[in-house]
Design goal:
Strand order of the largest sheet: 1-6-3-7-5-4
Structural class: alpha+beta
Bound molecules: 1-O-phosphono-alpha-D-glucopyranose
Number of helices: 6
Largest sheet: 6 strands, mixed
Order of helices and strands: HEEHEEEEHHEEHH
Oligomer: single chain
Helix content: 25-40%
Shape: globular
Distance between the termini: 53 Å
């Protein structure tokens, strides 16, 4: 069981500002997690749990972001990691940039919406510095940790990620989750088969 509290961000000042709005709910000495609900991840072990385990293995120190390689033409829609050491599933970052202009991206390793953040990230957000798109960016507040004794890590999670911020991604997630459920699979599969047969016949 747990308690749920809601905080409203009254103005659209960016993701960093939205996270900052929740500052009074947090223990200033403990790391905290951020989940962006439009990034839906299907995984045997939940993505954030995978990250908690990897974070503990690193000594429970610093900040960690979920990461995934994305196609070259999509990189500029994401926060992007500049990789220092690549240790396989975990990488250390020597830089991190929000929505780099096409051609300037340091890698194609993109940040996905799961974070374990050192409380100092919240302090960095206090500066209210604006970045990409004129917004207060969470990416920038995390990047400010690079070069401190705490460090920033990317974690290549196991699982399938759906970008539910797009209509197509939302529909794909709905179908995929439906097909993975025992109580829905058969009916949904039959519907999809009939639909594609009808479409093929109409061509
Ligand atoms: C946000 C973050 C970005 C991250 C992305 C993941 O961007 O600012 O760093 O890569 O989520 O979905 P948004 O999708 O809100 O533009």
């Amino acid at each position: 069981s747990g308690a749920i509290a809601y905080i409203r961000q009254h103005k659209a000042h960016g993701l960093g500002h939205a996270v900052w709005c929740a500052r009074r709910l947090l223990d200033p000495k403990e790391p905290f997690a951020v989940i962006l609900p439009d990034d839906v991840i299907a995984a045997e072990k939940p993505c954030l749990q995978q990250m908690v385990e990897a974070y503990e293995e690193l000594g429970g120190n610093g900040s960690m972001v979920a990461a995934m390689e994305v196609p070259a033409d999509k990189v500029s829609s994401y926060g992007v990691l500049d990789v220092d050491k690549d240790m396989g599933s975990t990488v250390s970052a020597k830089g991190m940039v929000e929505k780099p202009a096409p051609g300037t991206e340091p890698s194609n390793l993109a940040v996905i919406g799961r974070y374990i953040l050192d409380p100092s990230v919240m302090k960095n957000l206090h500066t209210m510095k604006t970045g990409a798109g004129g917004e207060i960016q969470l990416t920038d507040a995390i990047a400010d940790e690079i070069g401190t004794e705490r460090g920033v890590y990317g974690y290549r999670f196991e699982g399938q990620r759906f970008d539910c911020g797009s209509k197509a991604g939302f529909l794909q997630a709905t179908i995929s989750f439906g097909l993975s459920r025992d109580d829905l699979r058969d009916e949904l599969q039959t519907f999809l088969d009939e639909l594609s047969a009808e479409r093929a016949a109409a061509q």
